[in-house]
Write a structure and sequence with these properties.
This protein has a 3-stranded mixed β-sheet with strand order 1-2-3, covered by helices on one side. The protein is built from 2 helices and 3 strands, in the order ββαβα. Helix content is 31%, strand content 25%. The longest helix is centred in the middle third of the chain and has 14 residues. The protein starts with 14 loop residues before the first strand and ends with a helix. Helix 1 packs parallel to helix 2. By secondary structure, the protein is α+β, with helices and mostly antiparallel strands.
């Protein structure tokens, strides 16, 4: 039979996120799969929701990230580094 591989488009969410407990602290965990056109919006939404849930700190997991658009990567980095860096 035929096997098909998944097709990735910019319409798919770029992140999954959850709140985790680590040593008594609330860790806002964000897994970023690729720097597509949706990545900045999705990361911002995840940060906002996790912050509202009381995250003490955030982890941005880039393992197995497929790469992607440089402007999207720059915009996501600004959430963590600020716009001056």
């Amino acid at each position: 039979g035929k096997t098909s591989s998944p097709i990735t488009t910019d319409l798919e969410p770029a992140v999954k996120f959850s709140m985790r407990r680590r040593q008594g602290a609330r860790e806002g965990y964000i897994k970023l799969f690729q720097f597509n056109a949706r990545a900045p919006m999705d990361v911002k939404r995840a940060l906002q929701q996790l912050d509202q849930q009381g995250a003490d700190y955030f982890v941005l997991d880039l393992r197995d990230n497929l790469g992607g658009l440089v402007p999207a990567g720059v915009e996501v980095s600004r959430f963590f580094l600020g716009s001056e860096k």
